[in-house]
Specification:
The complex is a heterodimer of chains A (about 350) and B (about 260).
Chain A: H1 2-6, H2 35-45, H3 49-66, H4 73-98, H5 106-123, H6 128-151, H7 157-176, H8 183-189, E1 199-202, E2 205-208, H9 209-227, H10 229-239, H11 241-246, H12 251-277, H13 288-298, H14 310-329, H15 334-356
Antiparallel strand pairs in A: 1-2
Chain B: E1 6-15, E2 18-28, E3 33-37, H1 44-52, E4 59-64, E5 67-68, H2 74-79, E6 82-85, H3 97-101, H4 111-115, H5 122-135, H6 153-167, E7 171-175, H7 183-198, E8 203-206, H8 210-216, E9 219-224, E10 227-232, H9 239-247
Parallel strand pairs in B: 3-8, 3-9, 6-7, 7-8
Antiparallel strand pairs in B: 1-2, 1-4, 4-5, 9-10
Helix pairs in contact in B: 6-7
Bound molecules: adenosine-5'-triphosphate (ATP) and magnesium ion.
Adenosine-5'-triphosphate (ATP) binds near residues 15, 18, 20, 43 and 44 of chain B.
Keywords (chain B): ATP-binding, Nucleotide-binding
Pfam families (chain B): ABC_tran
Protein name (chain B): Sugar ABC transporter ATP-binding protein
Chain lengths: ~350, ~260
Amino acid sequence: MSDATDKASEGQSFEQNLDQSAKEVAQFKVKNTSLLNRIQHLLHNNPTLVPVIVLVISLIAFGFIAGSKFFSAFNLSLILQQVSIIGILAAAQSLIIITAGIDLSVAAIMVLMSVVMGNLAVFMGVPSGLAILTGMAGGVGAGLMNGWFITKIKLPPFITTLGTWSIFYALLLWLSGAQSIRGQDIDANASFLKFFGQSFNIGGARITFSAILMVLVFVVLWYMLNKTAWGRHVYAIGDDKEAAEMSGIRTDRTLLSVYGLAGLVCAFAGWASIGRVGSISPQSFYEGNLDSITAVVIGGISLFGGRGSIMGALFGALIVGVFRSGLRLSGVDVLWQVFAIGWLIIIAVAIDQWIRRVSA
Amino acid sequence: MTNPVVKASGIVKRYGHVTAIDHSDFELYPGEILAVIGDNGAGKSSIVKAICGATIPDEGEILIEGKKVNFTSPIDARDMGIEIVYQNLALSPALSIADNMFTGREIRKEGFLGKFLRMLDKPAMETFAREKLTELGLMTVQSIKQPVETLSGGQRQGVAVARAAAFATKFIIMDEPTAALGVKESRKVLELMKDVKARGIPIILISHNMPHVFEVADRIHVHRLGKRLCTIDPKDYTMSDAVAFMTGAKEPPAEITA
Ligand SMILES: Nc1ncnc2c1ncn2[C@@H]1O[C@H](COP(=O)(O)OP(=O)(O)OP(=O)(O)O)[C@@H](O)[C@H]1O
Ligand SMILES: [Mg+2]
């Protein structure tokens, strides 16, 4: 036996030439890289590139088709204003989708919290600031409720939020008595609720506060996702939850924080929506859930989790806005706008699948 | 011998009606490399996972440096300085090499940026990751920022090994760390294990590679049918003896059985 132990210090006999082995860092000969292949790699490293290119091309295309009606500072700022609420919802949705989840309740949380703010400030005489804070806390609570079911009871996000969508929707109908709160009443009692409806002009553009809020929300969340440990953990969980847990991430705690934060962002959207719409309507934004998912998907964020930049969702929301506005100004029937958005979704997911096949 | 670093006794783990660990004992002593060998499905991964909190045993007691521990997650073990290289590596494919090396123990920038804005110090993490990979001779990767999914299987294994070696202070568990590695890279990992041992940190090595086991191990724990069959000294037995014990072809002598 002593054979094996004798050689222990020098390793195995067939390894004796290892000392002379090549030392320089390996050079990879780049072969077989067609243009398509290189594009695939480029997009894999920069997932936001697709929506940016689509946005630029569609802006130019509609500029040609619809002319200066479309390509004016006023119309472009109008698009920004029109997408602001769905954009903020899409930011919340992105957080969830990056963890490989999905949230069907974002719009319900948003409208519910706008009703809560309205009821408190307009009818119950609570100071606007306090009413808004209550709504924000409610948003966090609603998000944590989703997160609790998902992490502690281990329910799938789709089913959980399908359920809470109905629950929150029923609650908001009950709280509002299915009645809108009129704009005049808000102006008279709680004009601060309409804060984000204000705007200012630069050049021909009219910039509303809600559009600025949208951009701010995206910038802050982008920073959190890309520059902090928390953000790296969110991506790791979406990538492979079990591996994340084994490599030392408290996955449930992180997921809970993601849902809570998404709820807070929805509540901000609720506040901003009051200014944007001018009143508080329980029927508004009924399709907001799906619209937010549309923006996220078109923005190149993978529904399988762990991939894509939150900025993509901002571009996704803008692309939808540009298509709607461009097609409308070109005199195209509304049904064809819906038709076009449908194709955008299919193409975006197909591109995502193609990019994901790049690995190794 | 001195007091064991790890002493586990009567560990049981059942999955439905599969008994992965069946009243097994386990000891790791200071400064040693302990090899764990056994057939596929013998329960090698299961027992080391029980020791590091990745699974929670149904029965049994685990003492680390004489103190009873009840880990509920691998994070608990890691906080004590125990690192593990999992058989499936436990890396996040879409994150970069540097991100993966630091998951759960990221370095933050100093001052306001780090303290209040919680900003990561990416350059520091990248420098550290590059150093560790170079030590392993694994700088054949193009960039420390490239996502782990674009690495070969062996390179990924290198990242996982480097991560464990860099952060362990108590002991390291390596579940088949050379399974996907080439001859040269395996050699580096074996050398690294010797370095770690020289630093006074003991290692548990699970491997099917008998020459590697007999080269580096101070003791060999033979696992069979969910429990420890015997512990042998590689100087007293041959590789064929070890294989005979672990496959059941030969009964080990009574004085060394579990
Ligand atoms: N999560 C699990 N669920 C159900 N059964 C499991 C699980 N993990 C392990 N087992 C079972 O426990 C037994 C031991 O598995 P284990 O992975 O510990 O074997 P091993 O000795 O590491 O094998 P290998 O050499 O193939 O890595 C096997 O029969 C396996 O099917
Ligand atoms: Mg195993």
